[in-house]
Amino acid sequence: MDLYTDLTDAQKRALKENADDLEKLRGQVEDVRREAMSRLKAAGLGNGTVVINCLICTVCEGWSEGDDRKCDSCSHRWFSHNVI
Q1: For residue 49, what pLDDT band results from cuts at 50, 70 and 90?
Q2: What b-and-e string marks burial along 61-74, b requiring 16 or more CB atoms within 10 Å of the CB?
Q3: Domain assignments of the chain as residue spans, ordered by start
Q4: Partner of 50 at 20 to 30 A CA spacing, among 10, 16, 29, 43?
Q5: What Å distances lie between residue 59 and 15, 54, 72, CA to CA?
Q6: CA distance 54 to 45
Q7: What's phi and psi for 81, nearest 5 deg?
Q8: Secondary element (H or E) of residue 12
Q9: Coil vs helix vs strand at 81
């Protein structure tokens, strides 16, 4: 399928359902990340001068996809990182 061709109704419906599901997930992820950042700040981490790359550890230098879809820098998965 060429990405620039007309989509069928079934394809349009599938893409819309995916978008709807991902929008629901986005809100949930934002809530969890906001709470995680709040928890870290309350504990003295991420006070505005320190960039928190991973919400689980302090050794991560920033998200870079490594083996098994984990971070090459700290081995945690993408959802654990402050990338959105």
Answers
A1: low
A2: eebeeeeeeebebb
A3: 9-80
A4: 29
A5: 37, 8, 11
A6: 11
A7: -100, 150
A8: helix 9-42
A9: strand
41's tokens:
């700040």
Amino acid making up residue 55: L
- The three state secondary structure string of 17-72 is HHHHHHHHHHHHHHHHHHHHHHHHHHCCCCCCCCCCCECCCCCCCCCCECHHHEEC
Rounded to two decimals, the pTM is 0.69
Does pLDDT of 29 surpass 70? Answer: yes
Q: How many residues belong to the chain?
A: 84
Q: Which residue has the tokens 């700040």?
A: 41
